[in-house]
Design a protein that fits this description.
The protein is built from 12 helices and 11 strands. The chain has 335 residues and is an alpha/beta fold. It folds into 2 domains: 1-120 and 294-335, Isopropylmalate Dehydrogenase, CATH 3.40.718.10; 125-292, Isopropylmalate Dehydrogenase. Strands 3-2-1-4-11-10-5-6-9-7-8 form an 11-stranded mixed β-sheet, sandwiched between helices. α2 (43-53) links the parallel β2 (35-41) and β3 (60-64).
Length: 335
Amino acid sequence: MSKSVIIAVDAMGGDNSPKKIIAGMSHFLKKNKNVFFRIFGKKLNLDNEISRCSIDKTIFEIIECDDVVHNNDTPLAAAKKKNTSMWQAINDVKERKSDVIISAGNTGALFVISKLNMKMIEKINKPALAALWPNKIGMNIVLDLGANVECDEKNFEDFALMGSALHKALFPAEESKVALLNIGSEEIKGHEIIKKAYQSMEDKKNDLYEFCGYIEGNQIMNGDVNVIVTDGFTGNVALKTAEGTANFISTELKKALSEGIIAKLSTLANISNLKKFKNRLDPRLYNGAILLGLETPVIKSHGSTDYIGFANSLDVCVKTVEGKLIDKIKKNISV
């Protein structure tokens, strides 16, 4: 097997799976050839979908799994089922048969099973959930988005390093610029933990990133920084608020441009710009959150995304492996 990246795929997790999973792989393969898939799930279901999509039989292997992690399973209940497609895919990476694991399934179960099976990177205390977030000139990495409600100053420093390593893996030509998400840009603003983190990061020099101080919520999309660090509670609220706002704007704009003959004519006249606007807000383009801090990257595709969104998360898998994400973290982590 000479493929450069081997991806363990939990094919049974998420809405409309395995249909969207296999269709996403087929879409991904139109532009990406140097991969091999180890697909975990119910073989009969998978064979039908693979035949429908005409995927080359030399670039995948199916590993039969009798059980599935359901969306309503608690993380503890899911962790007790050892023959699910999710558990077996994670274990495959643990045994070094695959380079990275991806699932669109139950988020809590994925994190718990990953942490049970994989070791943390030495000197990293807590994992963090990171994701892509658009800004005016490119993309941000934002973390933590829900893995840790409470953090100390070392966690913030670790998140900055891991987020910068991910940014370098995904966007190797760009310089990583880190900021702490806070209620103000002045040094005196915020709680004691974030102030301590600020001071420590200001004092230390790191070859992986430039520390740019604090950033407020209304500046996230300005593009002045590209790695934004916060605790999981704040990050998750910010993410859900941004998603809701984007959906509101798209819905209201669509409604406004479809009411009346003048609005419809205006829509036709500006169809190219409107398509660009729509694509910019398309969440499928930013699909693929990453659980950072473990010895192997774990990629979480949104459960409700379609095949295009899943294909984009497969691209994240490849870039994290080829960009040597874990090596970058290990090389730069400090005591």
